[in-house]
Amino acid sequence: MPQSAPGPEGSTPWLSSPEHRAWLTQEAERQLDFFARSIRPEGGFVSLDYDGAPMAHQLQELHSTTRLVHSYALAHLAGYQGAETLIDQGMAYLWNAHRDRAYSGYVWGVQGQQVADGRKLAYGHVFVLLAGASAKCAGHPDADRLIDDASHVLDTHFWEDGPSLFADEWNRDWTPFSTYRGMNANMHGAEALLAAYEATGREVYLTRAGRILDFFMRHVARDEGWRIPEHYTADWQIDRAYDGDPMFRPKGTTPGHSVEWSRLLLQYWDLVGRPKDGTLDIARCVVTRALEDAWDTERGGLVYTLNFNGTPDIADRYWWPVTEAIGVLASLLKIAPTEEDEQWYRRLWQFANDHFVDHVHGGWFPEIDAEGRPMATQFAGKPDVYHALQATMFPLAQGVSRYAKAFEDAPLWPVGQGQ
């Protein structure tokens, strides 16, 4: 299949270009069509291979279930037909399979109806809150009980009032697992808290999101040359010696997370009335540093991790850092556009279109080799729709916060159009 261009040539800003907006809408629909095959007849979801065929491995991880709920809730609000089937499937599986009736909370991995990995991770629990918030915006009848239950667990076991941050991990029975503290769970915690505030109006969610963002963006990032270290000790000091799983807890800093932090900071700033507090400058500093450090000038794309001085450590190129960079640049282009923002936005979309978008089957390839071709080293099949769907949908929204309301007010697929 020939590759369509992600936007027109010329000087027209892509966010206001009818051609680009039509391309984004079509690409979002292709992703949703592809991942709609994830339904597992017995409950939960299956992982999908490159061609959309179900994969044999049946372990269902908490972040995968929750991200599908969140993604199809946004799609439902935007008018995508059939999204409610996936929302219902995911909400039922969260409550009946992932929820731990014996010890409370939500287990990380489930196989069928059996617990396969009983760890209790903040990273997973904040995604439960995100799923509940998005499902509430989509009008799901079970959303409130999920929000309330996830909030109770986060309050009881993860939130630390002193530093105003989330602790990371426990055993299934809530006995200590480690003293590790991490940036990633808190970043997605801020994401979930902002969504929960938008869905419920409860100020506690907005306040906590602000405290998390303040620590990482106004203190850590500023002190670290606008980079954000991944790993911390129990008293929230940077753990520069930490070297964990090279995929999920790599050492050093991760530029894909830096751009994601910046988008969330702008979302928070918008929700609190855009005060004159230097937020836009901070976001720009973090984004500029990440792009300058991580862009592979010879091959294109963003390298996965950096050393603390900004030199590449893991030079592999994955899809999700590109999607997150697109997301923050779309926010910057809506707030205070510059020519450099426009150039980066186009450069990233062109690279994604050329190397990550699957123009035959739909969905995105998660990783590419040195020649820019799809490979399967760290990921089996296509992991999820969450990152790439947001990259296509968020630029189409009117503002930089309250995306659910924006899609409800101006659906991408009005009744009688689309699927």
From TrEMBL:
GO terms for molecular function: isomerase activity. The keyword Isomerase applies. One of its GO terms (biological process) is carbohydrate metabolic process. Pfam families: GlcNAc_2-epim (PF07221). InterPro entries: 6-hairpin_glycosidase_sf (IPR008928), 6hp_glycosidase-like_sf (IPR012341), AGE/CE (IPR010819). SUPFAM superfamilies: Six-hairpin glycosidases (SSF48208). The keyword Isomerase applies. Keywords: Isomerase. Belongs to the N-acylglucosamine 2-epimerase family. This is Putative mannose-6-phosphate isomerase.
